Amino acid sequence: MRRLLAWLAIGLVILTLLVPIAALTFSVQVSGTSMDPTLKEGDRLLVDFIGRDRIKRFDLVEAKPGEGSPTLVKRVVGMPGDRVAVARTTGDAPRVFVRPAGGDEVFEVANPTWAGQVGDRTLPCCTTDGKSGPARAWATVPDGHYWLLGDNWGGSDDSRVFGFVPADQVAGRLNFRILPLSDFGEVPSATELVSSADQ
Predict the structure, then answer these.
(1) Beta-carbon-side half-sphere exposure of residue 163 (alpha carbons within 13 Å)
(2) N or C, fewer C-beta in 10 Å, the chain?
(3) pTM given for the model
(4) Which domains, and CATH codes, for the chain?
(5) Helix count (H) and strand count (E) of the chain?
């Protein structure tokens, strides 16, 4: 019986050491303020590699937009086949429009974190590659790509800067926060599509 208890104690110690190591190995740390106020610099998020093929609109993802570019944490707004556009901002939040793939109805993205996040990323969008341009125009998200935005929309380098992101450059979903422990759990999101009279 003592031998069994000793092995159980050793197993428990090993498990106690391996769980934090595994969590840190399969996680990403937020750097910068482009996802404020949803995420803060230093937050650590668990990377769901298995969920790469199940990405949904408004998921948080880890992405590498191009060769030699840094890894970024952003929110998926445009799915493959969607049409997207951004009106020039005059108030304290952008007007982001989505026409989901296969439909004609226009929706506006309601993201409560955008209010008050004014910076210099306020140009209209989009050019054919999904970047900001001189005027509001519709752009279609290509198959196998996503259009990503930061929650700190006025201070975020996102698809308005680097364009559509290939799906194979998305490492995984980041919907679960492991640090700080005070915010441990699923990352909350109130972002949604709402009907828009704007066409």
Answers:
(1) 8
(2) N
(3) 0.85
(4) 46-175+187-195 (2.10.109.10)
(5) 2, 13
